[in-house]
Amino acid sequence: MLKKIVYKGYNLYFYDEKYEEIGKDIVEKKYKILKNIKDTKRNFVALIDINGKKYIYKEPRNEFRIPQRQIMTAFKKGEALTTLENIEKLINQDNRKEFAKVYLAINKRRNGIIVESSFLMEYFEGIANYDFINKEVEILKDIHNLGVYHGDFNPGNFLVSKKGEIKIIDTQGKKMVFGRYRAHYDMLTMKLDSYPEMVYPYKKDIWYFMAIGMKKVKRLKFIEEIKKYKKNLRDKGWKI
């Protein structure tokens, strides 16, 4: 059962009570950063140590950096809590052990809007391994059959250990709400960006043509220029 406590103005969410104290340590920054994995305007991801154990710590910064997204958090749970709840269900109810565990979600709201958020995940020793890419496609097909999509299907988000164990990372585990559009979008992301030789696993229905149409629109030069321009402005501190 999901538990929630408020500590020094922060909301801490967890299923296992031992993460209450770990959450307090994170709020008080009582952890050691072992490695900065990503530190951008959009996200901060680090390998950290708390009481001798390694974890992955993530701050989804766009959620409270971009005003239109921040305003929407007044009506949503936010990325951290959504990820915690969805991955917990996928692992424990749907028996999808491939997902890296999410232990803890933290956020801080001001006037109902999220101004800070983070979550704590399982640390898994693995790398992107193209030898397992067809198996990863099959795994994602099974995930899609549950009505769930990844959102950024690429080899870097499927970590493979030396023993061949696979863990899925960097997903909120959201449900598909618009037919099979998201399933096709996932597969097209892999095929177009990382694995052009992939035998496309789905029937090319209306959802496929909608997804590939959106992919093509996003690849139009003027659209890419607009995205680049907006990114540069955000990096300079503009709130757009």
Explain what the structure shows:
- With 240 residues, this protein is an alpha+beta fold.
- It has two domains: 3-122, Phosphorylase Kinase, domain 1, CATH 3.30.200; 130-203, Transferase(Phosphotransferase) domain 1 (Transferase(Phosphotransferase), domain 1), CATH 1.10.510.
- 37% of the residues lie in helices and 25% in strands.
- It has eight helices and nine strands.
- It has helices spanning 18-27, 62-65, 67-72, 79-92, 133-145, 181-193, 206-218, 221-235, and strands at 3-7, 10-14, 32-39, 43-50, 53-60, 102-110, 113-122, 158-160, 166-168.
- The strands form two sheets. Strands 1-2-6-7-5-4-3 form a seven-stranded antiparallel β-sheet. It has a two-stranded antiparallel sheet with strand order 8-9.
- It is globular and about 50 Å long.
- The model has no long low-confidence stretch (mean pLDDT 93).
Chart the SSEs and their pairings.
Layout: E1 3-7, E2 10-14, H1 18-27, E3 32-39, E4 43-50, E5 53-60, H2 62-65, H3 67-72, H4 79-92, E6 102-110, E7 113-122, H5 133-145, E8 158-160, E9 166-168, H6 181-193, H7 206-218, H8 221-235
Antiparallel strand pairs: 1-2, 2-6, 3-4, 4-5, 5-7, 6-7, 8-9
Helix pairs in contact: 6-7
For this structure, the quaternary state is single chain
Q: Which structural category fits the helices and strands?
A: alpha+beta
Order of helices and strands: EEHEEEHHHEEHEEHHH
**Record field, number of beta strands:** 9
CATH topology of the largest domain: Phosphorylase Kinase, domain 1
| Rounded Rg | 19 Å
**Total domains, how many?**
2
Mean pLDDT across all residues, rounded? Answer: 93
What is the spatial order of strands in the main beta sheet?
1-2-6-7-5-4-3
Largest sheet: 7 strands, antiparallel
Can you tell me the residue ranges where pLDDT is under 50 for at least 5 consecutive residues? none
Shape: globular
Distance between the termini: 38 Å
Number of helices: 8
Overall CATH architecture of the largest domain: 2-Layer Sandwich
